[in-house]
Amino acid sequence: MRRPVVLKYGLVPVLLASMLLSCFGGSAAASEQTSPGSVVERPETVRGFNTYGAAMTEQNVDELRNEYGANVVRLQIHPQNYAQQHNVSLSQAWDDMLDVTEQGLQEAARQGLMTVVDLHSVPIPGSKNAPEFWNDDATLGVLISCWEEIVQRLAPYRDYIWGYDLLNEPYNTAELPLGASKWHAWAQQLTDTIRTLDQTTPIIYEASPGALPRGFIENEWIDAGPGYPVKYQGDFQLLDDDNVIYSVHWYELHSYTHQGIGYHNGSPVTEDWPDKMVYPGTNDGVHWDKETLRELMRPVVDFQKKYDVPIYVGEFSAIRWAPGASQYIRDSIEMFEKLGWSWTYHSFRDWHGWQVDYTETMTSDANSASAIASEPTDRELTLKSYFSRNQFVQPLDSPRPPANLIRNGDFAKDADSDGLADSWIKGANAQTSIIEAEGHAQQVAVTASYQRGIDQEWMTVSGENRYRLQAKIRVDQGQVRFWHYGVTSTYGFAGSGIVSDVDQTDGEFVVKQLDFVPAPGTTKISVRFWSNTPAQFAVKDVELIDLGPEVVVLPPTTSVTVTNARGGRSAHLEFDAVADAGKSIDRTEYRVVGAAEQWQTVAPEGVTLTEPGVYLIGYRSIDSAGAREAGKGVVVTVRRGRRDLAGDGAG
Q: In this predicted structure, what is the pLDDT of residue 268?
């Protein structure tokens, strides 16, 4: 049984007891589950992306695993954001977010990726950073029940969960610049609750305030600058558990990493902003470089040395138009790698400002499609170079169910009992009701003229895949059009298709379906039941099935072997490219990230590097049909010889 999530703070004490008793139909111990087999060994180090479960389609996960080389995704459970985007209640948003998180985790596991499960927001109104959140002890009860449901719901995939991230960026605005004083005690109770259900999965604990590096400082006065009081911060309180990973979020030089946000929507085409800053470089009389980053991270480094605990950088990034963003990202990753930390980049298939497959040109949200990169960016190749170090786990061996993209296509959910199924939208003048008949929920609609009946929007699709749209429909009066409507990434019209114009069906349900490939440029579609005349109709079992690629076109695949010679003072790269059946390799190309914009053709003898340094080498192949492989990356180190060191004044 799904629990009713609290909608108002005043209701928390009243509903909390019934929530805890009815959430799972019995005691916590009774619902203990173990994942089948328990054969997956969690990798000690993971490198990947932040994203949402809804982004974890088969195609996207394949891209993460095989094009980028990520071995982990941090799945954000964000019911407050979902409720706003889909205009549903927080209770419905929580249920839907659990659905998409489970689906995303399942797809990740099927392709051998680990997952961090992140409680990004809580299904109660108001900000989790507001004093009201922290002052109401009933909030802890909601957090506990959330984690009870998460852990039990995801138990079948437990071997593929790298960690439970208890709460994203916790802090209390009333207690800044220090962290929320209740956070440690609450996190301990959450940990104890999880351990009654799962004794093995690591707990991920974000320092407060906001997972900032300064949250790890011990026994110092904290001066966060103008607007904040100076307060004393004592000892860091560890969680009482043997399997905890401590997490920091890395947006230091925040004015650099977040520059231009707020200006980018100033006009449909925006290419400049007044708060522009560079990295490395001097800004407002202060020089920023790699040493600056190391100093800012020192509190976390000192903390790890003192307590000998693992560290995970849960989020880091730089806005794509920040001058020098690729160097900032590279310097940050090199710091993480030297320290042996795991990390996840923000983000994958989220807002365009953080996307590494968009160019460095600032654009408004409305104009973001113009910034989709036609060539791999330095930021993308930088990530891929370090992802190439990843190790992977054995994929989950289970069949993949049909991918039905329709939310609540059986009309089983109507959280507010308004007669309109959750996730559906009705026309302004349509009358709707849900009835139960013949063992099925049916969405009934009555319209007065040619107008919208019920729609569901928007579902992400690919112009390279074939889809089947089908439903059972009964028309008692008039004529109803069953169709789909496609839009581009900026919601411009991209094309539509009619499944059927359905006349009266003599009281019987008829099945109508259409197989189609979305029109070029389509990124999302809406499913629609509109009347052509005054009509009364009922619909059940609506499905939009992703049938997979229309035509499978396999680009070349390239692997690289790096051989060091003379004690590491040179590195030789040999590239091996394989084309799809019936094709041959036209050429293999490479470029040095940060040093060359143009790709160079690899000579038959390969590439040799002799100058000392750490190189990020991007590479790809093109076949005889012109199919181009997505760029890959590798880190190559050429060491200095004794003479080089002596020339630098070293002993």
A: 67
